[in-house]
From TrEMBL:
Alphabetized SUPFAM superfamilies for the sequence: Formyltransferase (SSF53328)
Residues holding N(1)-(5-phospho-beta-D-ribosyl)glycinamide: G11, T12, N13
One Pfam assignment: Formyl_trans_N
Site-annotated residues for Raises pKa of active site His: D144
Family: Belongs to the GART family.
Domain Formyl transferase N-terminal: 2-180
InterPro entries: Formyl_transf_N (IPR002376), Formyl_transf_N_sf (IPR036477), GART (IPR004607), GART_AS (IPR001555)
Residue numbers annotated as active site: H108
Function: Catalyzes the transfer of a formyl group from 10-formyltetrahydrofolate to 5-phospho-ribosyl-glycinamide (GAR), producing 5-phospho-ribosyl-N-formylglycinamide (FGAR) and tetrahydrofolate.
Keywords: Purine biosynthesis, Transferase
Protein name (Swiss-Prot/TrEMBL): Phosphoribosylglycinamide formyltransferase
Length: 200
């Protein structure tokens, strides 16, 4: 399966996918990496792996719709089977979902439906939960609301900071992403009444 991965930061989730794809039996390859900003480690990781990259900055476009159309065109040019948002800090828009809806995955560092949005680990810590985690879901037109593919639980330690908690979540997140993207790539998946099932 052809994966296009979208990033906005350090790209450790991307790196986990790049490493997994090196094994031909994994059943997927990262054909391109897109970002919403320049100068991030995620793009450097792609370049080191010899994977084509593209960047679409919101500021370079007159409005969100134009940005979304440009992003959609770049992703489409790589003919993905799956698009994986791995730490991508933008909400994809109408054009994007019309084109790729149902095969866009996103990983979120909280146990949905708890703590949606940009600060999952911080919100979980502030709330005082004892268990948080990460969620892999199929993107719909909401914010972190799509049908759930997989989740992994992560304990919160009494001395956790946002960073220490997020790092522990990211360890679980990378494993969850690699395992489930591989299964979806090899086995296919269907979604019925918000239930995601592997198989064609
Ligand atoms: C991940 O925890 C992702 O869920 C969140 O930001 C982090 C990105 O990490 N949105 P990386 O860029 O994959 O290292």
């Amino acid at each position: 399966a052809r994966l296009v991965v979208l990033v906005s930061g350090s790209g450790t989730n991307l790196q986990a996918l790049l490493d997994a794809c090196a094994d031909p039996s994994y059943g997927a390859s990262v054909v391109a990496v897109g970002a919403d900003r320049d100068g991030i480690e995620g793009l450097a990781r792609a370049e080191r792996a010899g994977v084509p990259t593209f960047v679409h900055r919101l500021a370079d476009h007159p409005d969100r719709a134009a940005w979304d159309a440009a992003l959609t065109a770049s992703v489409a040019s790589h003919e993905p089977d799956l698009v994986v948002c791995a730490g991508f800090m933008k909400l994809v828009g109408r054009d994007f979902l019309d084109r790729f809806g149902g095969r866009v995955l996103n990983t979120h560092p909280a146990l949905s439906p708890s703590f949606p949005g940009m600060h999952g680990p911080a919100d979980a810590l502030a709330y005082g939960v004892k268990v948080t985690g990460c969620t892999l879901f199929v993107v719909d037109d909401g914010v972190d609301t799509g049908p759930i593919v997989a989740q992994a639980a992560v304990e919160v330690h009494d001395d956790d900071t946002v960073d220490s908690l997020h790092e522990r979540i990211k360890t679980a997140e990378r494993a969850m992403l690699v395992e489930n993207v591989g299964r979806m790539a090899r086995e296919g998946f269907t979604i019925t009444d918000r239930k995601v099932r592997f198989g064609r």
